[in-house]
Amino acid sequence: MRRHIVLVGLPGVGKSTVGRLVSEGLPAPLIDIDQLLVRQVGRPIDQIFGMMGEPVFREMEREAVAAALDGDPAVIVPGGGWAVQPGQIETAMRLSLIIYLKCAAATAVRRSKEGEVRPLLAGLDPEFDPLEQMNTLLREREPFYHLAHHEVATGTREAPEVAGEVMELARSHAGWA
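Structure (tokenized):
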């Protein structure tokens, strides 16, 4: 029986890119929670975060992931902070294969600068240090990420190689052919 594939990890680790490649390769529907919320609200994540605040954003994120988990098996890509919310990983574990995409904080910061604005990494203070913030996020979140069924290193690897490993895990542990 097929189960969902849920990718967790820091902002900038490559969840969305790898998720898209896995979705195409299995094939499976892709549910990128941030993109789903952007479509629903009609604003980028940093604006949703700024206008509504983190608690409201996290509630929207929880509801979107819960709805995705209630649907047909898919590749689900929640935001980096979803896994830290109480009970989320544990609930998803029963319905999904959870894979922690792992890289060093410095690599995640570099990659984050190449993509969309990340609310928790966009300090307005000139003294703000994105690497220090990413290290803080890693310390706070990694115990939750370690609850995942599997870990896949992404730091020095290209997205197609990482996606290939995730697809192998999906085939061997989550019922995907």
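Helices lie at 15-25, 33-41, 45-52, 54-70, 88-93, 105-114, 130-145, 159-173. The longest strand covers residues 96-102.
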